[in-house]
Amino acid sequence: MKRLFLLATALIMMSVPAFAANHLPGKGVEVKPARATWDTGYFQEALVRAGLEELGYKVDKPKDLANPLFYQAVMLGDIDYWTNGWFPNHTSQMPKHSEERVEIVGYVAKAGGLQGYLVSKKEVEKYNITSLDDFKRPEVMKAFDSNGDGKADLTACPPGWGCEKVIAHHFDVYGLDDYVNPIKAGYSASMADTIARYNAGEPVFFYTWAPNWTIGKLKPGKDVMWINVPKIIPREAQKPGVDRMTVSGIEGAVTDPLKAGFVVSDIQVVANKEFLKKNPAAKKFFEV
To answer: Among 288, 285, 287, which Cα is nearest to 56's?
Structure first.
């Protein structure tokens, strides 16, 4: 969030009339951005787009793209950039040899993307839930089974999101398939349903990340608690960041440190190299 504040400050400074009048390196250049399909990434996109406009660029309305489609499009030059790269979480979704045409530039939020599983605090205390393994216990499965299939229900990630692959990996290595049902519908709608169930006094179990509106509605430590994975078993793509899969000082965690099971990601701009080469002012702004 500090990084977003600095970007906003830079944008305000760039808005000084003398700067706008005398130095518009982007004048006459049309820019094609994209943005992620999760709504918490919209603010980051809007902030960077406004900055480019202050530099004189004509920035088109962003295209909403799933991660794999974006990385393919930016490599081909159909899209110039987006602000929603989560690394190393997205590394495995980038096409082979994409580094020849695509560059990761600067930081929107360095180590700013915490991810993990949260459970309603009342049930954490009632059933002594500390990790995903506790959802193999019959009484816990029954408490979190909202559709009558005999499994605990987890509000998970839609297809095409990087977190979907990590959750699938967790189900495999921790043997969760017979105990937990991952709900992969649209995330915002699924979380709205989750919050409604919580407000009705029902147990909830969901994946989320921060910064995110979900933990503004269901506050860690007050309403919900972050829980552990049983042990850290990284995917190949997570191995470079394995030391960031266990985190300390997390408010509302059942333990300290917390074995989150997800790498605390860097949120970064990803752009087409040819676009950056032709627009050094845009690249410099991305690096701010």
So the answer is: 285
C-alpha 136: how far from chain center: 27
Phi-psi region of 29 (alpha: psi -120 to 50; beta: other; left: phi over 0): beta
The mean-pLDDT minimum among 96-100, 167-171, 211-215 falls in 211-215
Q: Are residues 161 and 221 in the same domain?
A: yes
- Mind listing the pLDDT tens digit for each residue in 44-60? 899 999 999 999 999 99
Amino acid at 201: G
Residue with structure tokens 């695509």? 102
pLDDT category, 14, cuts 50, 70, 90?
very low
The CATH number given to whatever domain includes residue 151 is: 3.40.190.100
Reply yes or no on whether the pLDDT at 139 is more than 50: yes
For residue 36, the domain's CATH number is: 3.40.190.10
Q: How far apart are CA 57 and CA 285, in angstroms?
A: 12
pLDDT tens profile 209-262: 987 889 999 999 999 999 999 999 999 888 988 999 999 999 999 999 999 999
Total domains in the fold of the chain: 2
The verdict on 128 and 245 lying in the same domain is yes
Query: Does residue 79 share a domain with residue 12?
Result: yes
| 123 and 240 co-located in one domain | yes
Domain span holding position 177: 113-265
Q: What distances in angstroms separate CA 215 from CA 15, 114, 159, 193, one per listed residue?
A: 33, 11, 22, 15
pTM higher than the cut 0.85: no
Answer yes or no: do 260 and 145 share one domain.
Answer: yes
Cβ–Cβ under 8 Å, residues 190 and 138: no
